[in-house]
From TrEMBL:
Name of the protein described by the UniProt record: AB hydrolase-1 domain-containing protein
Gene3D superfamilies tied to this protein: alpha/beta hydrolase
């Protein structure tokens, strides 16, 4: 980029890179038409195919533009990353609410085949937990055989198990109330805070009344801007603003059903294999024990849980419940589980803040394992 380019021009050029605007097509089935799925990869994806691949399964309003946020760090550490727009987000075509998880599960193998990737490590955030648990349930062999690894950042927890006041109120709203969710969140992204700084949209915006926002609302200091994007603070501000604007210029209506999914307003079974986390972990543990065999030759599945110090979307009750799920009898024999809380972080900053968040730690551990 030329030194004379304005911050806006630099941001536009970075957000226009081809790696951020890729697509595949899912074939028509008996339940849906042919579907376009848009995604991004980090800029090093085709440079060195020996580098480990991290599939990022993002939050409620996470889009492929998050790939730019990860790009500099991924290149520095030596990993490659994939970020996918779920149905009705960005350029991915919408589906019925109760098909969201099923269509995601159709997407994963088609996408990895398209990219010529056999094995991945998974990092998820917030609502991405639901999709992640279903992914490892259905496609366990997609995890790397020598270092099967899943990192769950600020994992989403059913409010019946977390009993958080904010989410209690949201869960009592009628399902129809979420039909305007994406419109409200478009307003937030343009007027309140950049879309790349929040995961739960209006949930996160309301939560901001009770907890500190990640870094500063104006994208933090110059050092943080350099580490995240390799540009100055002003250009970072343009990137944060434009990424949300671009995403909403395509489609974010899928956020309506994402919200319904999170508060279980899509009917029984919408969370598929992880409808009950306690049951899910127990079943996963038993399958992992069978996989290891009597000689224990297979590598143990590594599950890393990264919690925010202050998370008003799941609270300490949700954290305790989620940790207890992974402390069941027999789990430690087949799954290597580690839980960590990140001081100074909240539900969003545990992902997006390079100073107090968990992403660097996750990517560095993945690199060491390989």
């Amino acid at each position: 980029m030329a030194a004379t380019d304005s911050a806006y021009e630099q941001a536009t050029r970075l957000l226009s890179q081809r790696n951020l605007h890729q697509k595949i097509w899912l074939p028509q089935t008996s339940t849906h038409a042919r579907l376009r799925v848009t995604f991004s990869t980090t800029t090093n994806f085709v440079e060195d195919e020996s580098l480990p691949v991290v599939l990022f399964i993002g939050p409620m309003f996470g889009t492929r533009y998050m790939g730019l946020m990860f790009d500099r760090m991924a290149r520095e550490i030596g990993v490659r990353m994939i970020c996918v727009d779920r149905p009705g987000l960005g350029g991915s075509m919408p589906v019925k609410g109760d098909q969201r998880v099923d269509v995601w599960l159709e997407t994963v193998p088609v996408l990895l085949q398209h990219l010529n990737v056999k094995h991945v490590h998974i990092m998820s955030h917030s609502a991405g937990t639901i999709y992640t648990l279903n992914t490892i349930s259905r496609f366990r062999d997609m995890l790397h055989p020598k270092s099967p690894y899943v990192a769950l950042l600020a994992p989403w927890v059913d409010n019946k198990c977390s009993n958080v006041g904010l989410m209690n109120a949201a869960s009592k709203l009628p399902a129809g109330a979420f039909s305007y969710w994406s419109n409200l969140n478009e307003f937030i992204s343009q007027r309140v805070m950049p879309a790349s700084l929040w995961s739960g949209g209006l949930f996160s915006s309301m939560a901001g009344r009770f907890q500190a926002q990640p870094g500063e609302a104006d994208t933090g200091d110059s050092e943080d801007a350099q580490e995240k994007y390799g540009v100055d603070k002003k250009t970072t501000g343009e990137i944060e603003a434009l990424s949300g604007r671009y995403a909403f210029a395509e489609d974010m209506s899928g956020g309506n059903d994402e919200a319904r999914l999170c508060v279980k307003k899509l009917g029984a079974g919408a969370w598929a294999d992880c409808e009950d986390y306690m049951d899910f972990v127990g079943a996963l543990s038993r399958r992992e024990k069978e996989r290891m065999g009597e000689d224990g030759a297979a590598s143990r599945l590594k599950v890393r849980m990264h919690f925010a110090e202050s998370d008003v979307l799941i609270g300490k009750g949700g954290q305790r419940y989620f940790e207890e799920c992974w402390k069941q009898d027999g789990v430690a024999e087949s799954i290597d589980v580690v839980s960590k809380e990140w001081p100074g972080s909240n539900h969003d900053s545990v992902l997006v803040d390079s100073k107090v968040g968990a992403v660097r730690s996750v990517l560095e551990e993945i690199k060491r394992l390989r």
